[in-house]
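pinging the channel bc i need a second pair of eyes. not urgent but kinda urgent?? the chain im working w is below, pasted from the shared doc
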Amino acid sequence: MATIKKKGIDKKLLFYIMLISLPLLQYAIFYIYVNINSFVLAFTSTDALTGVTTFAGFDNFIEVFRRFFASEDSYQFGIMFKNSLTVYGASLVLHLAFSLLFGFYLYKKGLGHGIFKFILFLPNIIPGIALLSIYKYAVETAVIDVYNMLGFEPIYTLLNGKDTVFGTVLFHNLFFGYGTQVMMYLGAMNKINPSISEAAQLDGASYLREFWSIVLPCIYSTVITLVVVGLTGIFASDMGLYSMFAMNAPAETRTLGYYLQRETLFYSTDKSHWPRIAAVGLCFTLVVAPLTIVVKRFLEKRDPMA
């Protein structure tokens, strides 16, 4: 008589559950819960003395609109918006032009491509605070000394000068983000079937023709992904200002992302300000979400590989 084996626990299923449980828990807490809680907060009001929370309707959004467009601080918010757009525009030009072209240079294994890869990846190895300290020391000493030695009108500071601080911070943001973009484009290019490039070379295609007609269409999805993701940075990126200046970034350099981060940290223990900050974040989302969808669909329709 054959014995009936008891069905045990599926070890593969158990392993799979254990593998995804922590990421799902993190997603549930730090994305779903946080976003739902922020949405609810935006429509509430908390008394500073009693801590009692009540429904506030759209009062917080009215306050946000007044602060941004109808208060003495409106001018400062205009500067923040302009700076945020400048950062995105500069990043877009740098990444679409120089990052793509230099990535193609590395893809074709140009002279020194190995050492260039190492140099571009280096900022991801060295701690950010160390790179920031080196950069601050360089621009406040070496750069100024060289500039003054060339006989130009003397300058004494770049990070504390009203006319130079934004450009100095912007250069830091672009310079240390450049390598990441190049390596991402290079990774996409390396996935292109080598036989396609070899066929183009046999047909006598120049490097420019290969880049424009073969490489760019093949990595188009990566390009539009980075362009679209960068749109969120208009309202979310602090341009490294908090790391460089903490809570005291000069008004000329502040961005919308830095404003939201600074407000959150400054009022981290005062619940009465949380609903207004949540309303600011929701307003930013209401602007950037449809913009991102529109730009994404617009670029996808122009995919040469579609």
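so The mean pLDDT is 87. and The chain is about 70% helix and 0% strand. — does that match what u expected or am i reading it wrong
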